[in-house]
Amino acid sequence: MNLFSKKCPNCSSIEQNVKYIYTTKSFGSRDMLVCANCECEFSETKNTFLQNLKTPISKIWEVVNSRTEGLGLNATARVFKVAKNTIIDWEKKFYDLHHILFIYSISHCFLQLVIEGDEFYTKVRKNVPPDESAGWTIVLMERASRFIWELSCGKKDRSLFRKAIGTIEKLINQTSDLSLLTDGERRYGKILFEICYDLIKNGKPGRPRKTLKKGVKVRIKNKGSQSHKRGRKRPKYQTPCPEHPETEQEIEEEDIHANHVEANNSAMRRKSSPFRRKTNTYAKSADSLQRVLNVYWVVHNFIRVHFTTKEVPAVDLGVIKNRLSIEDLFNIQFI
Asked: What are phi and psi of 156, to 5 degrees?
């Protein structure tokens, strides 16, 4: 899969010829292409972020970057003198960028992945108890590169966890060794065990034993004190579901934590306005919150250098060779 190839919007052919070059007001010269297969004519910006846009790329990036650094929608519109609906339209385009970049990332094969999972929430529309909030956000982050695989919001119920585990299931098919580490939340392992398991047949009578697939490990660090509770106490470190007997058990107890993703969540509370509890900039709706999260996902993974690793997460993980420029990002086709 070539991330920067141009496809014909009619037949999806990648064979085109340049018919002529035209000049734009803000973006310089562009190519008008003609498909070698169906002779369909289209611009090089067809089905990209820049289609039908006249605003300079530098200004669009200033707006988007400010939104991912904690500036609210109304404040951004005032500072850059851009209409709120225009900013919303730009952010909606990141849904298509998120979709194509996720498919591109998931198509790679990995030798080993250590995924940390955690959740945090914000208010949506009005102040309600945490268990009723539709602003719970699940974050699944690769430990070494800080690449965020899942960043989705909703009510903290089975459907939200099922969506996150669906991403884990795709990663399992692309790696031979995957470890999922969480702090206290047992639904990750439970749902993963339901959809990703093997049957161990040993030739003995009875139903075969069910375990996780070979190479898949789930570990939980139980947080908080249970001294006030009756009954048997939970151990501090647990394996919540049976694992394949041939899976290597090399995770040390001090490595069973979600500290890195928790640090990321703390940073998101500063960088994303819907999560800043000390202000009144909570999310107006779950769709609006997810729109902001999609923008953050793209910028965090493919544009911004992480302050700890000193590298872009997608480059560190091996998804891309070099950091994407803003021009490259905005010229990626959505089909």
From this structure: -80, 75
3-class SS of residue 178: strand
Q: Is 238 helix (H, G, I), strand (E, B) or coil?
A: strand
DSSP 8-state class, residue 131? G
Burial degree of 178 (CB within 10 A; 0-12, 13-18, 19+):
buried
Burial class (CB in 10 A: 0-12, 13-18, 19+), 30: middle
Residues with Cβ within 8 Å of residue 241, at least 6 apart in sequence: 189, 190, 192, 193, 211, 212, 218
pLDDT one-digit tens code per residue, 30-41? 888 998 888 888
Asked if residue 241 lies in contact with residue 195, where contact means CB atoms within 8 angstroms, the answer is no
Cβ atoms of 113 and 178 within 8 Å: the answer is yes
pLDDT digits (tens, 9 = 90+) for 229-263: 566 777 888 888 888 888 887 888 889 999 999 99
Fold of domain 110-225+233-269: Nucleotidyltransferase; domain 5 (3.30.420)
If pLDDT is split at 50, 70 and 90, which confidence band does 22 have?
confident
Length of the chain, in residues: 335
List, in order, residues 6 or more apart from 68 with CB less than 8 Å away.
271, 272, 295, 296, 299, 300, 304
What DSSP character marks residue 128? -
Structural domain boundaries in the chain: 1-44, 110-225+233-269
